[in-house]
Amino acid sequence: MRIKILWSDETKIELFGLNAKRQVWRKPGTIPMVKGGGGSIMLWGCFSAAGTVRLVRIEGKMKGAKYREILGWQVA
């Protein structure tokens, strides 16, 4: 029996931001500074009973057309 289920998800990883967990040791009185916001990357991936696919870097926002395009590349 072939199982036809595909799990997929996307995530945004931020270097410095609300999603970033950080612990830094500084001398007392030092003011923390980040120039340029630190950056982020959006990734999409999926897996099924048949295995996994490569992670895909998402440029811009993930909308329906882009999601269908990525699925076409990955599961064709």
Blueprint (SSEs and pairs):
Layout: E1 6-14, E2 40-48, E3 51-52, E4 56-58, H1 64-75
Antiparallel strand pairs: 1-2, 2-3, 2-4
InterPro entries: RNaseH_sf
Transmembrane segments: 37-56
GO molecular function, one term: nucleic acid binding
Describe the protein's architecture and organization.
With 76 residues, this protein is of the alpha+beta class. The protein is 16% helix and 30% strand. The chain is built from one helix and four strands. Strands 1, 2, 3 and 4 form a four-stranded antiparallel beta sheet that branches. Strand 2 (40-48) and strand 3 form a beta hairpin. It is elongated, with a radius of gyration of 18 Å. The two termini are 20 Å apart.
Short description:
This is Transposase. The chain has 1 helix and 4 strands.
Oligomer class:
single chain
What global shape is seen? Answer: elongated
Strand % is: 25-35%
User: Roughly how much helix do the residues carry, as a percent range?
Assistant: 10-25%
How many helices in DSSP terms? 1
Report mean pLDDT, rounded to a whole number. 82
- What value does the Rg take, in angstroms? 18 Å
Span from first to last CA?
20 Å
Low-confidence parts: none
Number of strands: 4
For this entry, give a set of tags.
elongated; alpha+beta; 1 helix; four-stranded antiparallel sheet; 76 residues
